[in-house]
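User: Fold this; tokens only.

Assistant: Input:
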Amino acid sequence: KKKIRVLETQLQSWLAATDKMDSRVLAILHGTTIRHEMRSRTITLGRATPSTPVDVDLACDGPALRVSRRQCIISLRESGDFFIVNTGMGSVIVNGRPLPPSTRQKLENNAVISIDNISL
């Protein structure tokens, strides 16, 4: 919960940064040290290896020993809604609620995604 509070307090600075956002950016993911601009309709989050590239390498934001190589996929639907699918073995937490493996959930604006103590 403490991490969620910290992220919420940083929200104002992030919102200011989105005012300067490129029009091709569909969404922005912020972590402790990473910032990823989502420019394609589908991105993969996980732990990159030489044989398994991902769009957002969670190992860059902290220890990711329990993060699957392809932990989850975020996609933008034609309706304009973002969805997250947990494609990994472990649980993903979205706004404090577990998203079990092989399940999908709609992402609300400013959703907090937590994977193995890494929050976006």
